[in-house]
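ping. complex inputs:
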Amino acid sequence: MEIQELNALSPLRAFDQSLNGGLGKGNLGVLVSRHGIGKTACLVHLSTDKLFRNEHVIHVSFSGNVEHVINWYKEVFRQISDGRSLSDAATVYNSLLSNRVVMNFSQENVSVDKVLSSLETLIRQGSFEADAVMFDGYKLTVASEDDVRKIKQFALDMRLEVWFSVSPVRPDVIFDENGVPSTIMKYKELIDVLIGLKYNESMDKVIMTLVKNHDILDPLPMRVSLDPKTMLITN
Amino acid sequence: MSELRYMRNIGISAHIDSGKTTLSERILYYCNRIHQIHEVRGKDGVGATMDSMELERERGITIASAATHVTWKDYDINVIDTPGHVDFTIEVERSLRVLDGAIMVLCSVAGVQSQSITVDRQMKRYRVPRIAFVNKCDRTGANPYRVKQQLVDKLGLNAVLVQIPIGLEDRLQGVVDLVTMKALYFDGPNGDVIRIESIPPELQSEAETKREELLDAVSLISDDLMEAMLDENVTEELLRAAIRKGTISLQLVPVMMGSAYKNKGIQALLDGVVNYLPDPTEVTNTALDLNNDEKPVILTSHPDMPAVILGFKLEDGQYGQLTYIRIYQGKLKKGDELINIRTKKKFKVGRLVRMHASSMEDITEAGCGDIAALFGIDCASGDTFCHPSLNYSMTSMYVPKPVISLAILPADKKSADNMGKALNRFVKEDPTFNTYVDPESNQTIIQGMGELHLDVYVERMRREYKADVTTGRPEVAYREAISQRADFNYTHKKQTGGSGQYARVAGYIEPIEESEEVKEYEFVDMIKGGTIPNEFIPSCDKGFQTAIKKGTQLGFPVVGVRCAINDGAYHPVDSSDQAFQTAALGAFREAYEKAKPIVLEPIMKVSVAGPTEFQGNIFGSINQRRGVIISSTEDGNGCVVEAEVPLSEMFGYSTVLRSLTQGKAEFTMELSKYGKVPISIGEELKKEYQEKRKKEQGR
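pong. complex structure:
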C-alpha cells in the first residue's frame, strides 16, 4: 500500500471528523485518563499520523529517557506499516524521522518559560518548522493558569497545534464517568479540545469521549476507540 | 605462580574527560607502583604515568591502552587503561576482549553520556561484568543517586548502590559502605590513611533505606541471601558473595563512588574489584578449532593444558616491537615454542615482560589468565599463538569499516622511507586503520574512523618516525548503489587472430531491499540447460565482484546489489574463465547506467553536549550541515543534542563548535548508516570525479 492510501484509510480521519476537521493550529488539545490507559501510545499515534502526512512534529517528554520515546514511535510505526503492508517501509520510516524531534527535559519542575524558550530555539535557530507539539506526560493538573495561558499564546504565535497527554498527579483525584479528573476542569476555558479515555471492561476497549469540542461542551462518545492490545486508535 | 583465584584482569572505560586516567593513576599509587602522583595535564610537566605517548600528554587524552600490573592486598590486578574518544573505539573493543571485568567510570555531574552508551553496548557485546564508579563527586552539581538512576533508565542496567556518599561537592568526606554499614574516610595528604568509623547519625536512616534496596535487589538473584534475610541473619560474607554472583552473571551492576582527583574512595573501589569482579576461571572463553570446521571450543584456565594466547596489542617502543598478550589456557615460559596460527610460523619465546605503563620488569614465566608482553615477535594485532599441538584461533573481533580517507605526501626520500615504516606499523597495530596507493593518482591514501583518528596517526608519523608529510583534503568513503532493476544481455567477443575470446551473459541486476542486515552483494545463478557451462558460473560471479569494487559514478564500491544471470552462450574453443569474467564486467557496466545509480554517504550519529545557553548555536550548526536533529535532552546542567549528520559536512566541526560555544561544548560521533546523497550534491561529486579522471588520463 502507498502512503496516500494508508492515510486515507487511517482511523485518524474519523478522529479528525469528530473534531470537525481536527484540532487546528493555535489550539490546545488534551488527552486525559488514569495512569496506564495508553495515553502515550495514543499521542504517538496522533503524532505519527501527522508525520505520515508530511507535517513536522516536536515531541516533548519529561521522562529523561529519549530511547524510550523513540521506541514508542518505532513500535507504533511498525504496527501501522505491518497492518497495512506499507511498501518500502524502511525508507518511509527514515524520511519520517527527519520531521520529528524529541525534546526531553529531565530536570525536576522545569519551568514553562524554559520549555517554551527551548522550543522556540529549535524552531527558529534549528530552522525546524514545526506544525505540532506533543507534550507527553505534562503535569497540567498542577500547572498554574498562567502557565497554560503562556502555552496557548505560544501555540497562537508559532501557529502550532498543541496536544497534551495528562495524568493527574495527586492520588486522591476524582474521575467522572468519562475518565476525566476533576482537577483538569479549571482549565476548561483555555483548552479547545478535551478527550477523556476510560477502559470499558465488557467491551474490552478504551472508550474515547469528546468532553469539549471547540465551542461544544456536551460530552459525546467518539467514533474511534483505543485497542488495548495494540494501544492504537481504531475505528 | 600465584593462584588464579587471586588474579583480576580489569579495564577502565568511560566517556572522555570523566577522569579515568586520573583514576588509573591513583590505583597505581595506592598499589605502591609509583611513588608520586602526577596529574593528566599536570603542572609538574611529567603527566600521568599511564599516558606513555608524548602526543597523549599534549592532548590530554589517552590513545593506546597500556596494560599495567599491580598488586592490591594479596591480589594481582592487570589494569588496562582504555581510550575514551569514540574515534579509537577499536582500542576499547580490543581491550574489552581480553578483560574479565571492568570499571565503568561515570562523571557524577554529567552522568551517562553518549560515549557511556557506546561503551555499554560494547561491554554487553563482550559480556563483561562491571562495577560502576561515579567519579568526581567533589564537583559542583555532583549527584551519584541521579547517575545510578540513569544507569537504570538509560542503559537498562540493574544498578544498585553499594555505597552512599558522606557529603558531596566540596564537602565530600568519604563513603558509607552498605555491606559493612561503616563509614570510610580517607585521611592524609594523598588519602592513604583509611579511617573506619560508625555511620554519622544524620546518614543512618538514609544508609538503612539504601541497604534495604541493595538487599532487595540482590536477594532476587541469590536464594541463599533470600533465606538469610528471612532468618534475619545476613552476614557480610553472604551479601558480598551474592553481589559477586550477580555481577559476574551480568545480572547486577554495583555502583561505587568517590573522587579520584581528591583521593576519596579509590581503595574501597579496589576492594570492590577484588570482591565483585571475576577471576579468570569464572569467565568462559572460547576459541575456534581450525582443524574441526571452526567449531567453538571452551578454553580451560588450567596451567597444565597446552597454551592458547592472544596478542591483543602491539606497541613500537624504544626497545623494539612489544606484543601485549593474554594467556587464556596453559602457561608461558621463556624458551617455550609457540606457533602463530595466522602465519603458521613457529617461534621461541625470548624476552617475557610485565608492563608498568612505560617501565617494565622481566619475568621468566606468565601464568594462565595473565596479561604480559613479548619482545620481537613478528605478528599483527589480534593474532592467536598456540602450543604447536593445537590449531585454535580466538574468535575474530568485530572490525568496523573505515569511513574517511586522506592522501598523504612525503616531503623527500627519507620521509618517504620513514612514512612507509610508520604505515606498516600502524596497520599492524590498528585494524581500523588502512592504507593503499591509489593506482590513478599514485598517491598514498590512509583510511580510518574519523578526522581525529587520522590526525593522531599523521602526528605520530611526524613525531615518532620523523616523517615530514603533508596531507590532502580528507575524503569521505562514499558508496554507490542502484535504485531499480535493469536487464543486461552482453556479448564479449574478440576473435581476430590468436586465441579468441567469446562469452555472452544475460540477466539482470536489482537492489537488495533494505532490511536490518545490509547485504553488500548477492549472486544468483538461474541458468537452465547449460547455456553457460557450470565451470564458467564462478567466473561470472568473479566478474561481477570486480565490477562492484568500483562504480562508474565516483569510483567507490557498489553496495546492496543482486546480480542474476539467466541466459548466455559459449564457444567450445574460445570461451574461457577470463572471457566470462570480462563479459560479466561489461554486462554490469551496461546495466548499471540503466539502473538509476545513486550515491550513498556515511551518516554519522553525532552527539553534542554543552551548556543550555548555546543550544541555539548547536541547533543552527547542525542545521547548516544538512543534519537531522533526533532529540535534545536538557537537565539542570546542560543539554545534549543528538543528530544525524553526513560525515562530509562534519570536517572541521570541532573548531566551529569551539568558537560557537566558547569552547564549552564537546561532541562525539560514530557511523550510524549510509544514506542517499541529495541529487545536486551527487551531481557535483560526479563532475569532480570526471574532471579528476580526465586530468589523470591527460597526464
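Chain A touches chain B through 30 residues (CB under 8 Å).
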